[in-house]
Model the fold of this input.
Amino acid sequence: MSARLEINLRKIQYNAHILVQRLAVHGISVTGISKATLGSPAIAKVFQNAGVTMLGDSRIENLEKMKEANVSAPMTLIRTPMLSQIDRIVESADISFNTELKIIKALSRASNLIGRTHGIVLMVELGDLREGIMPSDVETIVRSVIKLPNIEFQGIGTKLACRKGVKPDDKNMAELSALANSIDKKFGITMNIVSGGNSSNLEWVFRGSTIEGKESSRQIGRINNLRLGEAILLGRNPLDREPIKDLYTDAFNLIGEVIEFKVKPSKPWGEMAQAAFGTPPPIKNQGNIHQVLLAIGEQDTDTGGLTPSAGFEILGASSDHIILNAKENSLAIGDEITFELNYSALLRSMTSPFVNKVMEE
Ligand SMILES: *Cc1c(COP(=O)(O)O)cnc(C)c1O
Done:
């Protein structure tokens, strides 16, 4: 049972509940993003118990898995659909995020064939340069989308702070609101969804870096939805990775088993070349140390995103090992070491078949 991820469902539910409540004050609903959980139905149910109104995932496989497990919330595909997966998408996703008319037309045809209606949220480019329609082109696309059979135009959204780290601020959020207003006016509609972004938007909503959930003087405008993954799962603000007030940062723990424990010099000997993952960082000579080998490595997690429990220092890693300095800790073969994870480490651990996932109530 070693190499495992311990997942505390109670802490995840608490985090989600607090964020749902704090955002409700501002008229903002929460879409719980499950991609970092590999579409875990148990975690999706916890999101639902906490009051998220929709679930979102970037992978159709994850949405299918949750649906098969009878998770009942509306499902959103948050990555632009692949043409090669259209049939699966209209089958399992109620809504998808889109930027290409060709794909939306294919969704329309496929929904028509199975007699369903598929919801469309158009993603708008506001500077982070990942997915998105340029703001000046949105109106033209909406005009086509609202005419398509078996398609329901649900609204607009944006994604910031993901590729380039462009921060959500008053300016870009006001631009999204203004676009929602002008489209509604133009077409005589009231769009359901104006999705302002992800966990990185919390700081903008609550003003200031501590995210306390106190009444803010922000002009929230038309923003009525956020898509939250990291903030719920890890309790941190992705803009600076500081803990969000009152939330748990340790709902996930990664555990590795000690397979070697020896006193060794900290400085390697012999002629130096590249190592398994390129050129290793320079080594500081600390004399002889208590070196620990754990049976967990890059195939199991992003070792650069781990924080070991107090008194241990990560010295390096390879595909199958983490090397630690145990310092004053005395250890036995078979002992276990616990780590907290960042988003990247969580993502890789959840997707590694070598890591057991252990859910705790
Ligand atoms: C991953 C993702 C999210 C969630 O981001 P977090 O930082 O985990 O809150 C939201 N929207 C889209 C489009 C995503 O791909």
